[in-house]
Design brief:
alpha+beta, 12 strands, about 170 residues, 4-stranded antiparallel sheet, single chain
């Protein structure tokens, strides 16, 4: 079926969509989005600090960490006995500089095989040990050498943020 519309004295004809897929797609676009019944968690993963929030009852709430702060340092420190993340890692930084990893986003862009000089320069400036053989950062943890990718450090921070969110929502 054709419909005729007049606009400015000119006649235009438009066909109705006949494809059932197109009709379904159009209905989905026009539907109001479904809102989750459970809490929605958001993570702002930053180079220096990270933060988590929740969206509940049409409000955004920043979830505080165990120290009551709204932001958590994006830092991991490896000691003789513990793996510290966040504020405790930041406090440990100056006592344990070579085993504390933070401000590492520029590492994510570098390829250890191609950008070796740049990686060595960054590691030297931050007092980190870089194992050239394995192409990983070397830290001492529980009196053993531990070789880490930056992705491992990111994983520790994200795990800590997930635990904070789980503690807040009770799951």
């Amino acid at each position: 079926k054709k419909r005729k519309y007049k606009k400015g004295g000119k006649k235009k004809t438009h066909k109705k969509p006949t494809s059932p897929k197109l009709v379904v797609a159009k209905k989905k676009i026009l539907e109001k989005p479904k809102i989750s019944k459970g809490p929605i968690i958001g993570i702002d993963f930053g180079n220096a600090y990270s933060c988590i929030s929740t969206f509940e009852k049409n409000e955004i709430l920043i979830i505080t960490n165990e120290d009551g702060d709204r932001v958590t340092p994006s830092m991991v420190s490896y000691t003789e006995t513990d793996k510290l993340v966040g504020n405790t890692a930041k406090q440990e930084k100056y006592r344990n500089l070579g085993n504390t990893i933070g401000n590492f986003f520029e590492f994510l862009e570098l390829d250890p095989k191609e950008d070796k000089e740049e990686i060595l320069k960054i590691c030297k400036a931050r007092k980190w040990k870089f194992n050239e053989e394995s192409q990983k950062i070397s830290v001492m943890y529980q009196e053993k050498e531990l070789l880490l990718d930056i992705e491992d450090v990111c994983g520790e921070i994200l795990k800590n943020l997930k635990d904070q969110a789980s503690g807040y929502i009770g799951k």
